Amino acid sequence: MGDLLSVAVLYGGQSAEREVSLKSGAAVAAALEGLGHRVKLVDVTSALSETLTDLKPDVAFNALHGTFGEDGCVPGLLEVVGLNYTHSGVRASAMAMHKPTTRLVASWHGVPVAEGALVKAAQLAEAEPVARPFVIKPPEEGSSVGVQMVHSGEDIEERLRSYGSEELLLVEEYIPGLELTVGVLNGKALGCLEVTPAEGFYDYTNKYTPGKTDYRQPDMQAGFVQEAMRYAEVMHQALGCRGATRSDFRYDTERDRLVFLEINTHPGLTGTSLLPKQATQAGLDFPALLQALLDAATRDHPYTLLG
Question: What angle do CA 253, 155, 171 make, to 5 degrees?
Fold first, then answer.
């Protein structure tokens, strides 16, 4: 273990994922205090720079999820105030948060993606760019916020009521089969989990409600599992990510087809979160995982505004 530090755990914020971030931050703070670090929980507001100036921590642990915390905004502020911080830098955070951009990066690096298109809601009402069933995703949200499935025979107008007519939406073909997720720490895959919701798809409720989803470790020697772990490392490195990421995939068992869905630069750190489960697969308990993130933050700094 490294030196004991003064750590500001940034959590909460005002994104659609605020409640998840509050849980992640509380869990992180408790574990870091258990390691002996001096911890201050900071619910992020517009006064963040002033708060950090007053606290003068050694490092910021970024436990925010979603808009502002995960899209590069808060890392940018931390760059300006000159404070070490966990997780990815400005450019990597912004690119990873924008799903259409990550699709392009994946394609450039030979990582397969689903057929899809970025369209306005009004355009989708007039013409569907891929065959049904398909998935509608806001291009810059995490935790499956705003994600909807459209099946054969459903009224698309009803599905689009929750979006503005000019709102951009990512529409992707639905890939049947297994849901897989791979955690990466410092560029190396930790493990792979198969995710099976009790009903429906892996939406916000199933992600964060205990007992709603079953997690199992697939055969780690299976070809598609090894491929998923390799692709997760490729995406982590291609985007220039630091610390921990988690990449999600679908594996079509009938067509032997693995497809990359998205990468998360701030994986959840709650009691139901996947990254801690995958760290356990690699022999790291929760406090050890957090210490590794702190070590990376202090070792890899200084970041640059484009890092």
Answer: 50
The DSSP symbol for 133 reads S
Judgement on whether residues 280 and 216 belong to the same structural domain of the protein: yes
21 a catalytic residue: no
* CATH number of the CATH domain containing 212: 3.30.470.20
Query: How many structural domains is the chain composed of?
Result: 3
Cα separation, 213 vs 24, whole angstroms: 19
Residue-wise pLDDT for 241-280, tens only, equals 999 999 999 999 999 999 999 999 999 998 778 999 999 9
Alpha carbons within 13 angstroms on the beta-carbon side of residue 14 total: 7
Residues 51 and 196 in one domain: no
Q: Would residue 242 show up in a list of annotated catalytic residues for this protein?
A: no
| Both structure tokens of 207 | 């992600």
* φ and ψ at residue 149, rounded to 5 degrees: -100, 140
- Report how far Cα 161 is from the mean position of its chain's Cα atoms: 26
Q: Is 248 a catalytic residue?
A: yes
Instruction: Single out the catalytic residue among 24, 204, 248, 273.
Output: 248
Q: What is the 3-state secondary structure (H, E, C) of 156-190?
A: HHHHHHHCCCCCEEEEEECCCCEEEEEEEECCEEE
Calpha distance 180→186 (Å, rounded): 20
